[in-house]
Every structure is written in structure tokens, then in C-alpha cells.
Amino acid sequence: MTQKQIVAASEAGRIDVVLAKDIKISRSQASKAIKDGFVAVDKVTVSQSSFKVKAGQTIEYTPVEEKPAAFLKPKEKVVIDYVYQDDDIAIVNKPRGMVVHPAPGHQDDTLVNYLFDNDEKFDFDPSDTENVRPGIVHRIDKDTQGLLAIAMNTESQKALQEEIKEHDFHRYYLALVYGNVKDKKFKIDAPLTRPNHTQRKALVDVYNGREAITHCTLLGNNGKVSLLKCSLETGRTHQIRAHLAYIGYPIVGDKLYGSRLDKIATKGQCLTAYELSIIHPRTLQRMNFYAPIDDYFKELLNYYFK
Fold first, then answer.
1. What is the pLDDT of residue 132?
2. What is the mean pLDDT of the chain?
3. Which residues make Cβ contacts (< 8 Å) with residue 76, sequence separation at least 6?
4. What's the burial of 295, exposed, middle or buried (CB within 10 Å: 0-12/13-18/19+)?
5. Radius of gyration over every alpha carbon of the chain, rounded to an integer in angstroms
6. Which segments of the chain belong to CATH 3.30.2350.10?
7. Which of 8, 16, 154, 212 is the most buried (most CB within 10 A)?
8. Minimal CA–CA distance to 174: which of 118, 218, 204?
9. Measured between alpha carbons, how far is 67 from 232 in angstroms, rounded to an integer?
10. pLDDT digits over 223-239, tens only?
């Protein structure tokens, strides 16, 4: 336990916001201190982060010993490609090859690590081991490029998670697949199991799988490959990859669900999360975001449709 800090509130507002500003700590740290009983206003302990403090009131804050960070500092600096950012959310265009959150084999080189290292607005406590995926409300695979919505604080994370649960969170992908798709529009409704360390693939299983629904629209084909627009009604791990392989149209470059012998597409599945539509957790306004396909996708389109 370190020495108590006493300040006069610089402005009126929520105690967690004012405390974070005046003591120069993160809002999540302020909220945790309030919850644990280490903050008082005019000598009265405050227990709710929403408590309204007036300018000039005396705030007492007793710092607690910091726990070691649960999220490692990355070994190198990485520039995050922000499509949009404010105090509540960020929309990131994740590059192909980047893992979203720490997992075995990737403890210090994920998007979450880079957010902790680079982004002052990323208002999470790196020592909080209960929130194992801070800011992450959905994910895309390592070798898939495209849009991710990131929550910048716990309130936004809960709001976006609820939005996904209520199907108000819309995700659209472009996929280049092997095969001559003929249907202009179709739906894949096939329950999927969850991949694990022994079974790396998501498998269609009507008895043990969870509901999984993907909607597809044909954008073009040349007899060998087809370009599809896919939207997710559910968000299962590997859903688009597993579903398209299941109906006989594996994604170009997908060595897990397609051919391991592909000599042309060598940088992973040709899949891009190109559009995202969400309701902002604070303003409640719907927002739409877009990302261009990356050079790898362009190269494969040029190769197959030249």
C-alpha cells in the first residue's frame, strides 16, 4: 500500500472520469479503486463509479500495489491501422498475419498487446486476469485481413457484446473460392463444432454443433474460381471457411480447410472482412465502415481473372 493522494476535483462529473484525469490513472484503474473502497469524496467513501462529484470537492485516493501485467509488452512497435477511433470504440483494419489476442505461441505479438503498448485511449487494466480478451468482442483469424471493432473500455465491451447477441452487429466478407459457384444467392445453415487443440477444424455436426448460418452472394466467377460476398448471421470460429469447404467451395489459400499443396496462394486464406455495421454504444447511432482488400487478395484476383 502506498501513500494516500488528496486532490481537489478539477471539474464536475462522474467520479471515475474526474479521478482518472486528476490523478493521471486509467479510467479502469479508477473504477476498480472505487469498487474496492479506496476512493472518498469529502471523507465519505464512494462505491459507485457513476457518483457525481462537484468541482472543488476533496477526493482521497489510496493507491494499491500494482499487480504485474497479465499482457506482455511487445518486442517491437507496430503501427495500428485505425479506420475510426473515439473514447468508446476503435475500428481497426487488421493486417493478414496478425493474431487478435494472446494464445499459446502468441503471448506478446497480438493486437491486444499492441493496443496496451500504443493506445492511451485503450482503457483496460493490463493486470486484470479476469478479462482475458480486453476490448475484443469478435475476432478474425490470423491470416484473414479486415475490420475489427474494438471496445475501448469495459462499458463499451459489454454493450457491443450485447449487440452481437441481439444480431445488431453486422459483418460482411469477400471470399475467393475454388469452384464454379452457380447460385446467385444461397444460405448455408449447418451447425459447427468448435476447433480445439486436438481437432483444429470446425466440423459440421447436426447433433453436437452450435447453430451456424452464413449468407452468400455470387459476385463473379470464371469456371475455376468464384468471388463471393458472405455475411454472418452467427459468429462461430472459422465459420465462413468451414461452411464454404463443407459445400465444396474451399477458400483459395486455405490450407486447413482446402489443399495444402496450393503453390499460388501461399499467404493464407483469401478472405477479407471488408464491411462492418454497428450501433455506437454511447450515441446509439448506426455506423458503417469499409476496408479495401489487401495486396495479397488483389494479386490473386489479378492472377485468376486476368
1. 83
2. 90
3. none
4. exposed
5. 23
6. 82-304
7. 16
8. 218
9. 39
10. 999 999 999 999 899 99
Q: Give residue for cell 490450407.
A: 255
At residue 88, the pLDDT reads 95
214 close to 187: Cβ distance less than 8 angstroms: yes
**From CA 275, how far away is CA 120, in angstroms rounded?**
26
Q: Which CATH architecture has domain 82-304?
A: 2-Layer Sandwich (3.30)
Q: What is the pLDDT of residues 59-92, one digit of tens each?
A: 988 876 655 667 778 888 889 999 999 999 999 9
* φ, ψ at 282 (rounded to 5°): -100, -50
Q: Is 33 helix (H, G, I), strand (E, B) or coil?
A: helix
Sequence letter at residue 52: K
**Residue 163, helix vs strand vs coil:** helix
Question: Of the listed 125, 141, 143, 254, which one is catalytic?
Answer: 141
The cell numbers describing 191, all together, are: 451447425
- Where in the chain do CATH 3.10.290.10 domains reside? 5-61
Annotated catalytic, 141?
Answer: yes
pLDDT band at 2 (very low <50, low <70, confident <90, very high): low
Which CATH fold would you assign to the domain 5-61? 3.10.290
Q: What is the pLDDT of residues 236-280, one digit of tens each?
A: 999 999 999 999 999 999 999 988 777 788 889 999 999 999 999
